[in-house]
Amino acid sequence: MPDDLIQRLRRFRDQTFPGVQDTFEHLVKDGQHPTILFIGCSDSRLVPYMLTGTGPGDLFLVRNVGAFVPPHDGSAGYHGTAAAIEFAVLNLHVARIIVCGHSHCGGIRALYEGVPAQATNLAAWLELGREAVLPVQLSPEALRRTEQRAVVLQLERLMGYPMVREQVEAGQLTLHGWHYVIEDGEVHVFDVRSGGFVAASQSEHSGTGPYLRFDEAPTDDVPGSSGRGP
Ligand SMILES: [Zn+2]
Fold first, then answer.
1. What is the pLDDT, as a whole number, of residue 187?
2. Which in 58, 60, 62, 181 has the greatest CB count within 10 A?
3. How many whole angstroms from 123 Cα to the centroid of ligand 1?
């Protein structure tokens, strides 16, 4: 099997890097100052830089199966996602945290269909989405709704992190819940006032978590939204 990866690495160094060398040198000299923590599913079809039009130094990224946030339960284990949240908030002082799920999510689907018996870590991890599961047969609509419910569930868990809660309540940090529909190229953002997801093409804002201070929330009705009112 030809090793095409070594060719790609050489191509990056020789062809791509010269065009961005100044940017990276600047980021090394001055350090990184990303303003966004992006918690996304590991799915290969979710490409955060493309979605947000960002590049080097812009996103502090953590990805896992399902875009889940573990509870802040004080257990201090090998919690990679929890560690990334603490680092982003306490060291990098990010202004936004985005939780981004997506359509056709294998992690969410596995909540209905199960995982291989050997996948003991995966089975335990997926329980972080269990509360989002609906008591219905799996269907495309049920999967979509569960994916969105899972995003909101993670936003609520984020508020269980003391440093997140403190900075959200101080107005220094906002939470965004996104659901990316791969085949449409459209992100649907969670709107706290309507309690539903609104297509970014119709939304007036990029979405806020369920605990944005009310006096900072937009006052106009959100077009295209559905679900309960404020
Ligand atoms: Zn996924």
1. 97
2. 60
3. 15
Every domain of the chain and the residues it spans:
1-31, 32-214
Numbers of helices and strands, H then E, in the chain:
8, 6
**Residue 100 corresponds to which amino acid?**
C
Q: What's the pTM value of the predicted model, to 2 decimals?
A: 0.89
How far is 50 from 38, CA to CA, in rounded Å? Answer: 13
Q: Collect residues with CB below 5 Å from ion ligand 1.
A: 41, 43, 105, 107
- Topology (CATH) of 32-214: Beta-carbonic Anhydrase; Chain A (3.40.1050)
Give the span between the Cα atoms of 201 and 160, in whole angstroms: 31
Q: What is the chain's length?
A: 230
Ligand 1 centre and the CA of 108: distance in Å?
Answer: 7
